[in-house]
Amino acid sequence: MIPVRTTMIGCGGMARHHVRQMLQQQNITQITVVCEPSSQNYDALTEVFIEAELEPPLNEPDLQKLLANHPLDAAFIITPHVYHHDQTVACLEAGLDVLLEKPMVMNAAEAVSLIEHRDRTGQLLVVAFNGSLSPEIREAARLIREGELGKILSISATIWQNWGVATEGAWRQNPIVSGGGFLFDTGAHMLNTVVDLAGEIVEVAAWLDNKKRPVETMAAVIGRLASGGLVTLHGCGETIRSCDSDIRVFGAQAIIRTGAWGRFLEVQRDGETDFQCVEVPPSLGVWEQFLAVRDGSIENPSPPEVGLRMAKLYDAIRASAARNGEVVRI
């Protein structure tokens, strides 16, 4: 297989995490150039390549120059949220397939715009929601859709992280750049995975708390599914040093336990005394899944339409919280 010539747009901490996984797939991935205005971030990225005994890629901080002067097949965009829309449009228009970090965009209007650009250019656009791209969540969704849990009664989901302290003073707590707080950032994984599993959420009642920060770090949401089932969504971004999640789907015949990022999947069926692990194919992360979509091995489980539904859900949550928990229909 000819390696996919790739650019990384953004080289911060999360990008470096993904690069470490991508470097395990050198036979199908070639990071030829990156786009990073911060010399500090670029230097940190070069260390990742040096540790892997590889030559670091060039850095072209100007995206337009990069797209004009470097032959590329794909881009992985991992930048502050406010830049996602325009950078994705530039890459799609340049003929690149794009893997775009979550949350996809700042609002529903930008999501609609990206869908239009995707359709017009014919390029592939995948949103890097770890849950949607994980074998565990896809298998859990299949079990639910095929009726193995029976009627879905309710879903309980929680996600937590020491986000407030860890992102203090950074762009993630600047609402103009980030678009929201903990629930919009790390919590986006939970929101997206729950909808993957549960189906459409049609109304919500929500409460958000900034804890004296510029954006929300605490969230409690009650929702109702189109099917009539109930959902609770809880986010705590002020915990001890940690980052984890727990999602449980309660059906009439079985219970599923998993996480916002996938990572594990357990099922307890009627008559069983405990959860049983469900084995799924191993995964090297979102880039591996993006390449599988790109070569036609799997259908796109995380198209820009999931970014649109995420934007609509978060907007409804924020609208309800602004009215002290008043029910808002989506």
Structure commentary:
The protein is an alpha/beta fold and 330 residues long. The chain has 2 domains: 4-128, Rossmann fold, CATH 3.40.50; 135-282 and 303-329, Dihydrodipicolinate Reductase, domain 2. It contains 11 helices and 15 strands. The chain is globular. The model has no long low-confidence stretch (mean pLDDT 97).
SSE layout and pairing:
Blueprint: E1 4-9, H1 13-22, E2 29-35, H2 39-51, E3 58-59, H3 63-69, E4 74-77, H4 84-93, E5 97-101, H5 108-121, E6 125-128, H6 135-145, E7 152-161, H7 163-166, H8 175-178, H9 187-198, E8 201-209, E9 218-225, E10 230-236, E11 243-251, E12 254-258, E13 265-269, E14 276-277, H10 286-294, H11 304-322, E15 328-329
Parallel strand pairs: 1-2, 1-4, 2-3, 4-5, 5-6, 7-10
Antiparallel strand pairs: 7-11, 8-9, 8-15, 9-10, 11-12, 12-13, 13-14
List keywords for this structure.
single chain, 330 residues, alpha/beta, Rossmann fold, Dihydrodipicolinate Reductase, domain 2, 2 domains, nine-stranded mixed sheet, six-stranded parallel sheet, 11 helices, 15 strands
